[in-house]
Specification:
Length: 442
């Protein structure tokens, strides 16, 4: 790894929008409020659920149900260095250490293993879907078994074509209708169409603001690092139907817009290279992930994981199609197109891939996707062994070596292209050059 640590650029640190708290602080407060609302409901004797991150939560909001998210809870637990203890506890219960780290943390917590990383009430029901991966089904079945509670399941078929067929949409809408009947039986209430539509409107507003915030990575120099988006993942997962999250992301976009005008950035170092980071970050090792990149002036300006939660739709059928699209539930052609479009729009010169032991469906597709990047984009791609939650599966030294190799290749190519007068970045004509004197994103 480069021995020289790059100095911060003086005066580049962004400021909050006048009259507002920093957006990051606002968004942290939103997540705290979501969990606080769930605890308040629990204390009032109301039902509280656990939900998989891409369950169509709008259905539950039609019944005024408070819901929290085991994936978010597990990520926070891992980031606060308590994940390994819970993983070990789950293994002592008989769960194999080869299954997802999130699942092991969650199952241990569901069985009564305490953690102070984030307080989360135990569930009265679970909401599950398999558009993330099929492992979710068994994970949530086991939570339901531990607590002897209902599980409401929505099955999303794998999308082996780029367009979601009308037959599959029919199938999923039918399942939405069945889930509604189960929720009616669970709550003793009738489905409230008005509240459902309100939840959908807020979810679309939140998604639009989130995707807009993500889009600012396209500017050169970027007003943010992709690692900033990882810090806000809890909001787009846990508060998609909460107007407080929509307002927080709108404020975040205002901050990025202001940074574009003023020439500031949360990335406070020279932007020597811009890369795509593929996969879920290693939450227990965020600093070890970031430091080698920072020291070499490598800014992450394209991430797949963050915008994958930006569901936008109009009506129940479009909603079914939107929720069908997740990184692990679409065909290779879709997966390649998503990433290559982002690479072109955001102007990258390399890619760094997490072969995430906890997420085998995601990592399993990566060799072919990597091959296509190299062929279609002509960029260097390196990968490292990691894990989203279990720190035993991440080697800091291996990671440093892989980043060093990527930087050396990008340095060589940069020198060659600059000598020929060529643009350094992939399809850079699609990347938005910053012009401080003009308005930018509408």
């Amino acid at each position: 790894m480069a021995k020289k640590v790059l100095e911060k650029i003086p005066g580049i640190k962004p400021r909050p929008v006048e009259g507002h708290k920093p957006a990051a602080a606002v968004l942290r407060g939103v997540v705290d409020a979501v969990y606080g609302d769930a605890w308040d409901a629990k204390q009032r004797g109301e039902l509280v659920g656990w939900s998989s991150s891409k369950f169509p939560i709008e259905l539950a909001k039609a019944f005024d149900l408070q819901v929290v998210y085991p994936e978010n809870h597990a990520a926070t637990t891992a980031a606060k260095k308590d994940g390994l203890r819970l993983c070990n506890a789950a293994e002592d219960m008989g769960y194999d250490n080869d299954i997802c780290g999130y699942a092991r943390i969650s199952l241990a917590f569901a069985a009564g293993e305490p953690t102070d990383s984030r307080k989360m009430p135990q569930p009265d029901f679970v909401l599950c879907c398999n558009n993330i991966c099929n492992m979710m089904t068994k994970w949530y079945e086991n939570i339901a078994r531990i607590h002897n509670i209902p599980m409401i399941m929505v099955d999303f078929p794998f999308q082996n074509t780029k367009e979601v067929s009308e037959e599959k949409i029919d199938y999923m809408v039918g399942q939405f209708e069945h889930a509604i009947k189960q929720l009616e039986e669970l709550t003793g209430k009738k489905f409230d169409q008005k509240k459902f539509e309100e939840a959908c409107n807020i979810a679309n507003r939140t998604a639009a603001a989130w995707l807009k915030a993500c889009s600012y990575m396209a500017y050169k120099p970027s007003p943010l690092s992709g690692f900033d988006l990882f810090n806000h993942m809890a909001d787009i997962v846990a508060a998609r139907c909460d107007v407080r999250a929509a307002e927080g992301f709108e404020l975040l976009s205002e901050e990025f817009e202001q940074s574009v005008r003023e020439g500031t950035s949360t990335w406070e170092y020279p932007e020597e290279h811009r890369i795509l980071f593929e996969g879920i970050p290693c939450w227990p090792a965020l600093r070890p992930l970031f430091e080698p990149l920072k020291n070499a002036g490598v800014n992450v300006t394209a991430v797949v994981y963050a915008p994958a939660f930006g569901f936008q739709y109009n009506g129940i059928r479009e909603m079914a199609a939107a929720y069908s699209k997740a990184p692990c539930s679409v065909c290779i052609e879709d997966g390649v197109e998503w990433r290559e479009t982002m690479a072109k729009e955001n102007g990258i010169s390399g890619a760094l891939v997490n072969y995430n032991r906890s997420c085998k469906p995601w990592s399993g597709a990566m060799p072919e996707i990597e091959r296509r990047w190299k062929e279609d984009l002509d960029i260097p791609v390196v990968h490292f062994d990691g894990d989203q939650a279990d720190e035993r599966n991440f080697s800091e030294e291996q990671y440093k070596t892989r980043v060093q190799g990527l930087v050396e290749i990008m340095d060589e190519r940069k020198e060659e292209r600059e000598a020929k007068g060529e643009e350094v970045y992939t399809n850079f004509e699609n990347t938005k050059e910053t012009d401080w004197s003009k308005p930018t994103i509408d």
